[in-house]
Amino acid sequence: MQVRPGSKxxxxxxxxxxxxxxxxxxxxxxxxxxxxxxxxxxxxxxILIGSENVxxxxxxxxxxxxxxxxxxDMGIHTIASDPGVPDSxxxxxxxxxxxxxxxxxxxxxYGYHYTDNPxxxxxxxxxx
Length: 128
What we know:
The chain has one helix and eight strands, in the order H-E-E-E-E-E-E-E-E.
């Protein structure tokens, strides 16, 4: 195989052009990636959703505390307050590892249940 004069320079020019295009089009990103925000919850204010129960079934908190329901089940569940509670709430349908948060601003006793299985329920007692 015979190499034509100037073909190395042409190849170098093409590679240089491709590199310049990649830099200009954003294919090479030199910025630091941002980490998505992590939801804030603690074991003292988190209710774990399972296929057969919630844990804990009774949670006592102070007024102004945000409670987190975290679905650990593979099924989709919706949490809703029972009728007659001081301040009603309903979560969106929660898939596995999704969470719902509600801040309790009114003191009282809050019963809640799964809308897909009303037999699974819990209670939150909010002290002033």
